[in-house]
Structures are given as structure tokens and as C-alpha cells.
Write a structure and sequence with these properties.
The protein has one domain. Helices cover about 0% and strands about 40% of the residues. By secondary structure, the protein is an all-beta fold.
Length: about 60
């Protein structure tokens, strides 16, 4: 992985951009253009679960 000095907070891996998330990096996308989606739920807090949906509707 290499940092791109021409863009703030931009990293690449083998020429592909790598999106980062963190305290000051924002969040990552939770859906895809073809309708897949991720949701995080906490049915037994503090234990989280990640749910994957094909149509983005959970």
C-alpha cells in the first residue's frame, strides 16, 4: 500500500484506491451499485452483528 501525496488521505494498493475509515476519515460505503447492502445490528449489546442483504432491505 502506498500513500498518494497529491491527494489528502488517499492510499493505493496495486494502482487501486483504498478507502479508509476512522476517527477523522469518515465512514465507508454500506451499499453497492447492484443492490447489496451491509447493516450492523446489536441484538445483544455490546456484541454487534453484520448483516448482508442482496436487495439492500433488511
Amino acid at each position: 500500500m502506498a500513500r498518494r501525496p497529491d491527494l489528502p488521505r488517499a492510499w493505493t494498493c496495486r494502482g487501486h484506491p483504498v478507502h479508509l475509515a476512522g476517527l477523522f476519515g469518515g465512514g465507508l460505503h454500506s451499499t453497492t451499485p447492484d443492490g447489496w447492502g451491509l447493516d450492523v445490528v446489536s441484538p445483544e449489546w455490546p456484541n454487534d452483528r453484520v448483516l448482508l442483504s442482496a436487495d439492500g432491505d433488511i
